[in-house]
Amino acid sequence: MITPRFAAVMLAFLSMFTSTLSPAMDAMSAPAASDAIWRPKPHMRWQLQYTQMPLDLSVAADVYKIDLFDNDASVVEALKTRGKKVVCYVNVGAWEDWRPDANRFPRAAMGRDYEGWPGERWLDIRRIDLLSPLMLARFDLCKANGFDGVIFDNIDSYIQKTGFRITRAHQLRYVVWMATAARARGLAVGINNNPEQAKQLLPYVDWAQAESCFSQGWCALLSPFVKAGKPVIVVEYTDDPGKVTSMCRQASTLQFTLMVKKRELSAFRQDCNSAQRRTGRRL
């Protein structure tokens, strides 16, 4: 268990190296992942489901990515008895008004509304001193409920209209701090999007997820993960069989794992194997 004192010392240590974007950031040694920490392997089958509960436990996947607050320890245990690894989703960059800990967030850390996502506001990730008790409590809950890993979402505040002057260095400092804290709890760490900082974050995390990177043309930016033996999972949203065929070929070339979902992120899931069976075409 990480004590508040240790967290404060760790934060001070990271601040020494990451107050500005400099070579020191690249030179800093990544926290070692314990041998006890699960590390996802390339080409594992992934599933994610956030809506249309209860959770569908029958999907042919090796790893489930599910919401931290919407699934208790009994759900995690049910998946594990089926041989699955389970990852908790945590929104680390934005406040959500429906979360059970929403009233604990200080107003000083809350910025502009997250456009397109009602009930969400950007967080001032520069203020790790304010956010650390909340994020550490979430990681503790993730660990206590039996999850194997955690994925960080909304980690590109430096390119968003947050209401704060957040820089690339602030973003790196925040993600590195969280990754260190999560790994100290025995959790594997994944990141969602933020391809511009993929190379710098690579030593600190265990896999990357990308949404719509084939559609938007930036998947190749995550290739360093594959070279390092770490998986890349791409989530695309399309009903066009031709696009799925093309994306599967690109995923094969890049050695990425492709998962086609509906935007509501229900249990529906299509991968390249199921797409091949559906179309009868070799992908």
- Unreliable segments (pLDDT under 50, ≥5 consecutive)? 1-28
Number of helices: 10
H and E string: HHEEHEEEEHEHEHEHHEHEH
Determine the strand fraction and express it as a percent band: 15-25%
**Bulk shape:** globular
DSSP strand tally = 11
- State the secondary-structure class: alpha/beta
Radius of gyration: 18 Å
Mean pLDDT: 89
Quickly give the CATH architecture: Alpha-Beta Barrel
For the largest beta sheet, what order do the strands appear in spatially?
1-2-3-7-8-9-10-11
Q: Provide the CATH top-level class.
A: Alpha Beta
Key structural traits:
three-stranded antiparallel beta sheet; eight-stranded parallel beta sheet; 283 residues; 11 strands; alpha/beta; 35% helix; 10 helices
Task: Provide structural commentary.
α1 (4-18) packs across α4, α1 (4-18) runs antiparallel to α5 and α4 runs parallel beside α5 (168-184). This protein has ten helices and eleven strands. It is 35% helix and 18% strand. The radius of gyration is 18 Å and the shape is globular. The longest helix has 17 residues, at 128-144. β5 and β6 (120-123) form a beta hairpin. It has a single domain (52-279), classed as Aldolase class I (TIM Barrel, Alpha-Beta Barrel), CATH 3.20.20.70. The strands form two sheets. Strands 1-2-3-7-8-9-10-11 form an eight-stranded parallel beta sheet. It is α/β, with parallel strands linked by helices and 283 residues long.
